[in-house]
Amino acid sequence: MLNNLILLAQTAHDVPAFLIIPFLLLIGLIASGPVLFGHFWEHNYKPIAITLGLTVLAYYLFALQNHHMPIHTFFEYLSFAVLLSSLYIAAGGIYININANATPLMNVAIVMVGAALANLVGTTGASLLLIRPFIRMNVHRIKPYQIIFFIFIVSNAGGLLTPLGDPPLFIGFLKGVPFFWTLQHLFFPWLLAIGLLSLIFFIIDSRNKETDFIPDPAVVARNNEKTEFYISGKRNLFWLAIIIGAIFLDPNVIEGLPHISYDGSRFSFLREVIQLAAAFFCYRFSSKTALAGNKFSFHPILEVVFLFFGIFFTMMPALQLSAAIASSPEYAGYITPNFLYWATGSLSGFLDNAPTYANFLSLGMAKFDMAQNSIIEVRQFATGTGVGGHTTVLLEAISLASVLFGAFTYIGNGPNFMVKAIAESAGIKMPSFFAYVFKYSIPFLLPALILIWYLVVHLRLF
Questions:
Q1: What is the chain's mean pLDDT, rounded?
Q2: How many structural domains compose the chain?
C-alpha cells in the first residue's frame, strides 16, 4: 500500500504541478471517450492507459529519481489487479438464477442481501456474484438507474461493517484497527446508509412501468407461485473462500511469511500467488453450464486491469500534492471530523478510496503526534485510548467517507467499473462518467451523504 501521508508530503515539493495532467487527461478520456469517439476508444483505451501511466512512471524514475513511490504503487496495483481478477474468475463460474418477479420490493431485497453479503466476501465479491442474476431477473425492465443503485448499495455502502467489506477498511485492519471496530462503530451509520439508498431506489423503481415486454404467462405463473434460487458451479465457492482467506496473508501483520523487502517495507507475493492459482483452478474446472449461463468473457476484467494501471500510476502526483496541502501547518487547525469527512470523501470519489483512507488516517494521527506505521498507536487512535476518546470520531469520519464516497464516480472503487463493464457486456447502455455524476450521484447519493454527515459526524446521534 502507499506509504504514510507524512512521507508523501516530504517528497511532494519535488513533484511539478504539470505532472497531474496525464491523470486529468486519462479521467477526461474515460469520461468522454465512450460518448464522443466510442469506436476509437474501444480499440485504443489499452495503449492510451498504459502510455499515460508509463509516462508518469518514467518521470518519477528518471527525472525525479524517486523509486519509493513507484515501487509502492506497483505492489499496490499488483494486489488490486490480482484480487479483482481472481474474484471475477471465481464468481464467473458460479451461476445464480433467481426465479422471482422483478418487483421493486424484490429488487430492494436483492441489493440489501448484497449489502450484507459484502461484509463477508467483500464488495467486489458480492457485486460479482449478484450483478448477473440481478440483470437477468430484471431483463424485461432493466434500466441504467438499477445498475447505479446496485453500485451505490452493494459495491460500496454495503461493505461498512467488517474489514473484509471494502479495501479502505481492510487497510485500517492491517495497520492495527481492531477487526470488530467497524461493526461496533459503524453499524447504525450502515443501517442509515443502506436504508436511505434502498428507500430512494424503491421509490424510483416503483415508477418503472415497462410496457414493451410481454412475459411468458407460464413463467409469470411459476414466479407468482413461489420464489426460487438456483446455484450452479458450487465448487467455485471453495476457491472463492481460498481467494478471500488469502487476503489475510500480509507479511506486515504475520511474521515469517515470505516477502519482498525494500527500504524497510514488506511486500507480499505469496498472497497473490495463491489467489492466481485459485483463479486458474476455478477457470480450469469451472462448470461449463455456469460459464455459459453467465456469458463469461475476460473483456470486462481486462478493461478494469488496463484502465486502473493508468489510474494508479498517473494519480501518484495528485496524491502527493494533495497530501502536501493537507499536511501543511496552516491546515492543522482544520483537522476535525467534519473536515476529514468531506476531504476524505471528495478525494475518495476521484482518486480511489483505499490510498485516500491511508493518507487521511496519517493526517488525523499526526495531529496527536501518532504514526500509522505503529500498530499500537493505530489501535490507540481507533479506540481513543490515552487521548481521551477524541480520536475515535475522526476515524469514524474517515472510514464512512472513504467507503460511501467511493460510489460517487466509476473510478472511486474497483467494483464500480467492474459492474459497469459487466452491465455493458449484457447490452445495457450505461451513462458516461459525467452523466453518472450529474444524473445520479449528485441528485440521489449526495443528499444521503449530507444527511449521514449531519446526523452521524456533526450531531453524533449514532
A1: 85
A2: 1
